[in-house]
Design a protein that fits this description.
This protein is of the alpha/beta class. The protein is built from nine helices and five strands, in the order αββααβααββαααα.
């Protein structure tokens, strides 16, 4: 349950635009990591309680995620998306790629945030905006939960599209996570271009595409 204490306090302190940032896709064996940044003002925040089952994306049903996604897109001051693909993940590691995708999401906003609230314990490097990192922020802070939902809906749709380009792994269903079927198909087909070669299962596999 998001009680909005932090957001309300920040607006009372004079912040005009507050951004929440979260990423999706650190754990999968395939596909990009996606971050979303949702920028809100006090007017939007007053309507947050009307959003259905507002929670982090993993605890919200698909139906409600889609509904909340549309409401955010229509009413937030701005929404930014940041994506880092598998080449970047393999080059700089998944943590750094997650932070980079978060930075891209913040910089893709149409308005500059006065403060950025980030899920987790790490701050975004080289970002010239005030930041506060919050462990389990997607379960505590409303606008981080909003960002979590945007990121998940965006990435899920992307993985469904990639399933048509790289068939055989069931990306539309598993979204790149290491399900039993996915791992069995890797053994059968080998790795494709969107598998993360720096992750253990793929270090010795060959590219079939």
């Amino acid at each position: 349950m998001h009680k909005l204490e932090l957001e309300k306090r920040l607006f009372k302190e004079g912040y005009r635009y507050i951004a929440g940032v979260d990423e999706v896709g650190r754990g999968p064996l395939a596909g990009p990591v996606v971050s979303a940044c949702v920028l809100v003002d006090n007017k939007f925040l007053k309507n947050i309680d009307n959003l259905p089952e507002l929670n982090d994306s993993k605890k919200t049903s698909l139906k409600n995620r889609e509904k909340i996604f549309s409401i955010i897109q229509e009413n937030a001051v701005s929404v930014g998306i940041g994506v880092c693909g598998v080449k970047t993940i393999d080059k700089i590691n998944i943590l750094q790629a997650s932070l980079l995708s978060s930075k891209k999401a913040v910089l893709n906003l149409s308005h500059k945030a006065d403060i950025v609230l980030i899920d987790g314990k790490f701050r975004i490097p080289n970002l010239d905006i005030e930041q506060e990192s919050i462990i389990q922020g997607d379960a505590k802070i409303a606008i981080i939960a909003l960002a979590s939902i945007i990121a998940k809906v965006y990435r899920d749709k992307l993985m469904t599209k990639l399933d048509t380009i790289y068939p055989g792994y069931d990306f539309a269903k598993n979204k790149g996570y290491g399900t039993l079927y996915h791992r069995e198909q890797i053994e059968k087909l080998g790795a494709c271009k969107i598998h993360r070669r720096s992750f253990a299962p793929f270090k010795d596999t060959k590219n079939n595409y």
